[in-house]
Amino acid sequence: MVAAGQVVVGVSGSLAGLAALRTAARAARSSGRVLVAVLAWEPPEGEVLHARNSDSAWAARCAREAAARLDRAFEEAFGGTPSVVRARPDRALCRLAAHPDDLLVIGARARARRAAVRRQVSAHARCPVLTVPAPAFARREYRALCRATARDFAAG
């Protein structure tokens, strides 16, 4: 039986975002819904300042970086083709998951900016919202990961 609606997941490349992506894929597979993975972005200076002093080369570079970040996250989770949207994350996700039969999946991180996205999505979503926490690490492991460099992961 195929469920109506789609499963929309916000992807950021964080551990919580990767956990949300995997959870959303399982939910889509088990319900027969379409999986829509989205990374929303805005110019670093914001849309208002960008509109006042538009630089199309800068915006194109930001879009390429967002697409590359989403591709890396999707590839790390399981491979496939995701979508990049130029918009505030909360607005983009709520717009894509606009039907009551949809399911919106987001990762839960402790950072204030992402907490704001989570609050806005929870307040404005027209469908159920599933919040997936980041995997838990022991404090010592977490500190070691934060101090790690690319050299630490290179094949020796």
TrEMBL record:
InterPro entries: Rossmann-like_a/b/a_fold, UspA. Residues 6-133 form the UspA domain. This is Universal stress protein. It comes from Streptomyces mirabilis.
